[in-house]
Description:
The protein is mainly alpha-helical. It has one domain. It has 5 helices and no strands. It is globular, with a radius of gyration of 15 Å.
Amino acid sequence: xxxxxxxxxxxxxxxxxxxxxxxxxxxxxxxxxxxxxxxxxxxxxxxxxxxxxxxxxxxxxxxxxxxxxxxxxxxxxxxxxxxxxxxxxxxxxxxxxxxxxxxxxxxxxxxxxxxxxxxxxxxxxxxxxxxxxxx
Length: 135
């Protein structure tokens, strides 16, 4: 497995947004406070940015979580993010339909289970190394 060090420029608006979204995810994880639809969108954005910044030779800066999962799956064990595939795929499956719902009021047909969402937020934060990788 190879990795490369990339500079994280907080002057870059995308990186500032990631830092802010991670703070929001951590707050939701600790308190449960936050609009679930927004939390799902933040999870996806944080993971997409993490993957595109961590593996810039393997992903394009505008890759979606769907295309990231597909690229890892298509490349197989040779992909440096292969170890993340199951987690990324689970988060993608969970959030796919929720992410694409555009209800301006923020109401979904079925309210999101906050406990389940908190679990996915935890998994997201572990992937991006915002919390320790505990059992």
